[in-house]
Each structure stands twice: as C-alpha cells, then as structure tokens.
Amino acid sequence: MTPRDGGGYPADVDQPAESSEGTWHLRLYVTNRSPKCVRALANLQRACTHWLPGRHHIEIVDLLENPRRAVEDQIVAVPTLVKAYPPPIRKIVGDLSDTDSQYLLFGMQLGSGDGPVM
What is the chain's Cα-based Rg? Predict the structure, then answer.
C-alpha cells in the first residue's frame, strides 16, 4: 500500500499486485489515526488478504493532510472506502467490520461461498 497523503500510516502495509490486469484499486479515506479509521484499514487488509490475495492495491488518503481529495470522490464521512476498479464504483462508509459491507464491496451475494465478481 502506498499512501499518497501519509497520515502516519505505514508506507508499505500491503504490496500492490504485480500486474494491473485484474487488480482491484481501493481508496480508503481516513482522518489521521482515529480508532475507526485504524479499524477500517485492518478490516480492509484482512478482507483483501482473504478475497483478493495479490490482486489489490490500497491507497490511503488522510483528509486532514489533503482535504481537497474528498471532493474527487464526494466524501462526506470517514472512514470511507471507494472501490475505484473494477466497475461499478462502490462506496462504503464505516469501519468494514460487518460482513454485509464486505459482501457489498466484493460483489457477492450473502451466504455465497463464491469469490469476488469482477
């Protein structure tokens, strides 16, 4: 993971996938290291490791350091996760601790054992 705007998050928590084809691009909007934002990052990393091993890139955007970035994706609350690729674009507000939000993010039906749909 390569945070574009820092925020005190580690610069190398997740490595982006080697090939961009089939790589999911996820952007997590946070405010500094608030407890909810830290939980959101941990839950996102856990979900990506499970559902998208080696096929994801997470960008962290700290809105305290760069508030203009919120305009790009129309962010009104944090933490907010934006799935930029593959389409459709999805936004999820919250710490991603409930499985419903993870199913929504990865495009799966509740209760299905299938992997993510692209």
Answer: 13
Is-contact 81 25, C-beta < 8 A? no
Complete DSSP assignment for 6-46: -TT--TTSSPPPS-STT-EEEEEEE-TT-HHHHHHHHHHHH
**pTM score above 0.90:** no
Position 109 scores a pLDDT of 43
pLDDT in tens, 46-93: 999 988 999 999 999 999 999 999 998 899 999 999 999 999 899 999
Q: Say which CATH architecture domain 24-106 belongs to.
A: 3-Layer(aba) Sandwich (3.40)
| 73/118 Cα distance (integer angstroms) | 21
Q: What is the pLDDT of residue 81?
A: 96
Work out the number of other CB atoms within 10 angstroms of the CB of residue 98: 12
Helix axes 35-51, 99-106, angle to 10 degrees: 50
Domain boundaries, the chain: 24-106
DSSP state of 89: P
